[in-house]
């Protein structure tokens, strides 16, 4: 079996399952609160839509960077560390916002974890570019 992008595929799959769960939660809240479009007056639905939207805003870029890193030969340990950190960060972000729309430890872990992963990934791919260009 070709082992190309196996690590990226694992985290893409796990994050897709999380995205699916976030989507199902929105559907559940739409049914519960009888809201077809938008968020109506439902605070829970407003929060769920933002959790889902925030995921959709950050995760695709991180997955693209993870694939690029794997294609450039990043170590398995680094790829797993970044993929796992992103997954944990996104779970924490969702839990933190679900429990409180204000500041919370889980939301803070989610935001800082996501940003740390993206910054490390950006540094890695820029470093590979600079190293290859010299």
Describe the protein in words.
With 134 residues, this protein is mainly α. The protein has one domain: Membrane associated eicosanoid/glutathione metabolism-like domain (Four Helix Bundle (Hemerythrin (Met), subunit A), Up-down Bundle), CATH 1.20.120.550. The chain has 4 helices and no strands. The chain has helices at residues 6-33, 43-71, 76-99, 105-133. The longest helix is centred in the middle third of the chain and has 29 residues, at 43-71.
Quick structural gist:
This protein is an all-alpha fold. The protein contains 4 helices and no strands. It has helices spanning 6-33, 43-71, 76-99, 105-133.
Features:
134 residues, mainly alpha, Four Helix Bundle (Hemerythrin (Met), subunit A), 82% helix
